[in-house]
Amino acid sequence: MNTQSPLPAPGAPLQHYVSIAPFDLQSVEAMTSEQSKVFQASQLRLMWWKFRMHRLALVSGIFLAALYFGILICEFLAPYNLHTRNMDYIYSPPQRVHLFHDGQFVGPFVYGRQMTLDMDTLKRNYSEKHDDVQRIRFFCKGDSYRFWGLVEGDRHFVCPAENGQLFLAGTDRLGRDVLSRIIYGARISLTIGLIGISFSFLLGIVIGGLAGYHGGIFDLIVQRIIEVLQSIPSIPLWMALAAIMPITWSPILIYFGITVILGLIHWTGLARAVRSKLLALREEDYVLAAQLMGATSSRIIGRHLIPGFMSHLIATATISIPGMILGETALSFLGLGLRPPTTSWGILLTEARSVSVIAFYPWLLLPMLPVVLVILAFNFLGDGLRDAADPYK
User: How far apart are CA 337 and CA 257, in angstroms?
Assistant: First the structure.
């Protein structure tokens, strides 16, 4: 039996099913609570939700936030003062942390050490004394220091036992604790990347923005300068710029000098990215409207064009900071950057420039570990920010 409705006769009007209810401008289609939550969310909230889905970037962001918080209180976190020397424990290898002694739970502790000198190789050999249990103390009094060079203090997060030793990352040729020096060195190595990228961004946005917006002869000159700078090998350029700084400068002046050098080298890539973006955006209708209303070039670039791709700039910054950190590490490792008594990860790696030192005392390469972890974290964070910049994809 055919239950389909018969077709209308030729020429007969078609039936239309149209709601005769009055039209309400404020009415919206029925949405679930989840759909309504997304529909009413702001742009920043959508970006956060997208960034949170990138687990690796989220973990990297937490890791970097913890590191940058740690440089604020590095004097408290380090077991020893930056310049404390333990002359009886020169080139002492890292100590192992134990929890149980003779089958009984003692808590975190290390065994005391005894040093013997190999008369054939003149190498110091350390052996553990299992009858000397040295419990690790927390939130304790230890070496005195000046917090940020201003306030006297002696409180530490972790300390060795009374009249004991705690070298979790070993010691160097002067008996200084490597872990404490790594913690102190983070303050220089991490902040030099932020200051350097700020200087680089200022140059890149201003020069690239003017070149992309105005074009013409200015754009031509800027592009030739960028090509010349990018064609020069990095190491000779670093050496030339570092040689300009007088040897009589204080460590603070050298620190800011290195940041200026890194900023002068890394602005070219950002300038080209800003230029290419502005070449496309300057043809938009809202730019023409701003020009007709009498807005100046600086206002159009700063208020209308740059915010249009600020998320891209933020992602670029997180990827560029590792280059700054590597630059400082390379300069200091070559002896062209920061100099003692300033401490950075690059300066700590200068202790391991000799092959024989690496063969006998491999723990002196441990400052390389935070460099690798920080660079990976910044790259993962940059990937997450780049994906979150367009939450609708």
Answer: 9
CA distance 200 to 260: 8
Q: Which two tokens stand for residue 172?
A: 């160097």
**Exposure class string for 276-305: b at 16+ Cβ within 10 A, else e:** ebbeebbeeeebeebeeeeeeeeebbeebb
Query: What average pLDDT does this structure show over 183-198?
Result: 86
Mean pLDDT value of segment 329-352? 80
For 138, list phi and psi in degrees, rounded to 5.
-125, 145
Q: What are phi and psi of 273, to 5 degrees?
A: -65, -45
Going along 275-381, which residue ranges are E strands?
Answer: none
Amino acid at 150: L
Query: Is the peptide bond preceding residue 367 cis, with omega within 30 degrees of 0?
Result: no
Give percent of the chain with pLDDT exceeding 90. Answer: 20
* Distance (Å, whole) CA 266 – CA 254: 18
Cβ(344)–Cβ(188) under 8 Å? Answer: yes
If you write DSSP's letter for every residue of 252-295 in order, what string do you get?
HHHHHHHHHHHHHHHHHHHHHHHHHHHHHHTTSHHHHHHHHTT-
How far is the C-alpha of 133 from the C-alpha of 109, rounded, in Å?
7
Give the SS3 label for residue 37: helix
The C-alpha atoms of residue 1 and residue 87 are separated, in whole angstroms, by: 105
pTM of the predicted protein model: 0.79
The whole-chain average pLDDT of the chain stands at: 82
Distance CA 126, CA 115 (A): 5
Distances (CA, A) of 267 to 79, 146, 271: 39, 36, 6
Across 274-300, average pLDDT: 82
Tokens matching residue 72 = 């604020």
Burial class of residue 131, CB neighbours in 10 A (0-12, 13-18, 19+): exposed
Q: Which residues pair with 178 in a beta bridge?
A: none
**Long-range contacts at 42-45 (CB < 8 A, ≥ 24 apart):** 43/391
User: Distance (Å, rounded) from C-alpha 183 to C-alpha 70?
Assistant: 8
Q: What is the DSSP string of 173-225?
A: TT--BHHHHHHHHHHHHHHHHHHHHHHHHHHHHHHHHHHHHH-HHHHHHHHHH
